[in-house]
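S.,

Sequence below, as promised.
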Amino acid sequence: MEYAIVQRNAFIFCRYSIAALIWVALLFQNIWVLLAVFVILALSFALTVRRAPMIMLWTWTLARIFPSEEDVLDINGMRFAHGMGAMLALIGLSLVWHGNPFAWWFVGVFAILKTTSALGWCPAYKVYGCLKGGGCCALTAKRPPAPDAE
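The prediction came back faster than expected:
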């Protein structure tokens, strides 16, 4: 398992700013802001959390003024979460682009999901943990081997 060390404030800035951008796209029904969200999340997926655009923006600018403690993040888990976010943004873009009547409703659901992620309850990161661990519920979780009956 590979980990990245990222400033806590940079990670918070990344989470909150992406959620805010999705809400802006929804409130103003602006496809270009939604496209920016997709690009940021796709780059975060491709470059990993260490070099994610919003992390780097914070690190190169405000980190000098507002230094913080560091968080240790699972690179693969964050890559999975960024990939899921990029995929949701791409679906939203496609729906809006094609004039689907439910497009902005989908973006609204995406905004709610991303807001829960920003507040620390990252559903995609938890799904990654479940998939990696073999499942999260009693039906799918790996069970310890049965003791030998003698």
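Residues 75-97 form the longest helix (23 residues).

Coffee later?
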